[in-house]
Write a structure and sequence with these properties.
single chain; about 190 residues; alpha+beta; 6 helices; 6 strands; about 15% strand
């Protein structure tokens, strides 16, 4: 969704999906299916719009705690057409969702940003309005994590400039298995 950058992590996932298709690797190994889960990417265009439309530019250089930043972002509104697109998307969701960062700097070969920004998990809910609210809050929370103290410190350590960072969002269905009323992800982790 959007016309901006998809970010480094989404670019890596798109490349991996292309390789899996090109070389027919989905079922290459016995009893193992390798795939990229159903994924929606929100481009950096919406990050820029969110910051500007909610007057959050001041956060870049403000001396706010992570909790204050999170509170400001969650209290703000995502663009209406993005909300409508997300409403359509969640109608087709059958699994819990992972809301992940995909900044322009992530998955950089020389300066890995893995684990720097937040990821949120959204449960699969029958109440789609509540699921949309949780998804919206998760997106805004990932946006907020760009400006957290640890993120700013890492940006400084890697000689990047925080106000040039742009965030795209990856929303993926969580791969896993239902066991009764509980859904267990197959695996999870961070590589740096």
């Amino acid at each position: 969704l959007g016309n901006g950058s998809i970010g480094g992590k989404a670019r890596g996932l798109a490349f991996m999906n292309h390789i899996l298709q090109q070389y027919s690797l989905y079922n290459e190994w016995e009893n193992v299916r390798v795939m990229v889960p159903r994924t929606l990417v929100i481009t950096t265009e919406y990050f820029d719009r969110f910051i500007i439309e909610n007057g959050l530019q001041y956060v870049v250089n403000a001396d706010l705690s992570d909790a204050e930043i999170l509170s400001e972002f969650v209290a703000s509104s995502l663009p209406q057409e993005l909300m409508e697109s997300l409403r359509v998307f969640i109608r087709h969701v059958k699994k819990p969702l992972a809301v992940r960062s995909s900044s322009k700097l992530e998955d950089s070969y020389y300066q890995p940003f893995a684990g720097i920004y937040s990821t949120y998990m959204i449960p699969r809910l029958k109440d789609k309005d509540e699921m949309l609210r949780l998804l919206s809050d998760a997106i805004k929370s990932v946006y907020a994590s760009v400006f957290y103290s640890d993120s700013k410190a890492y940006m400084t350590a890697t000689r990047n400039i925080i106000d040039q960072e742009k965030m795209a969002i990856i929303i993926q269905e969580v791969v896993g298995t239902d066991y009764g009323e509980v859904y267990y992800p197959s695996f999870s982790g961070v590589g740096r």
